[in-house]
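Q: Hi! First time doing this. I have a protein sequence and I read that you can turn it into a structure. Is that right? Here it is:
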Amino acid sequence: MNVKQVIVMRTDLGMRRGKQIAQGAHASMKVLLDECYRIGNRIEFSRRGKGSNTTTAWPELIEWLDCGFTKICVRVYSLKELLDIGEKAKEANLPVAVVVDSGKTEFHGASTITCLAIGPAESEEIDKITGGLKLL
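A: Yes, that's right. Below is the predicted 3D structure, encoded as C-alpha cells:
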C-alpha cells in the first residue's frame, strides 16, 4: 500500500511562509482528529513495529504512520479552487479537513479558509484529485 497526505494551500491570500506552515500543520492534525471522531475512535494502536498485530478501522493511517508520514504540499490560486478540490475528495470518500483561520494575526480579524488536507489515503486515489496541482 502506498499512502500519503496532501496539504492544499491557497496562495491568493499572500500568507507569510510561517503562517502557511502553521495552517498546513493545523490541516494535517485536523483531518486525523476529525476522521478518528467520525469512525468512533475505533483505532487500536499496538505499535510494536511493522507487521505487528495492529487493528484499525483506518488501515491507511497505520500504514502512513509506519512508513514516514509522507506529506505533499500543493497550491491553488483561489477559494473556489480549494473548495472544488475538497468536494471532489469527499465525493471519493477520502478523509478531508478544511482549515478556517480566526483572523487574529492576519486577514484583518476576518475568518478565512486557508487550506485543506486530504488523507492519509492511497496515493493513487489522492492523485486522481490533486495530481495536476503544482507543488507549494
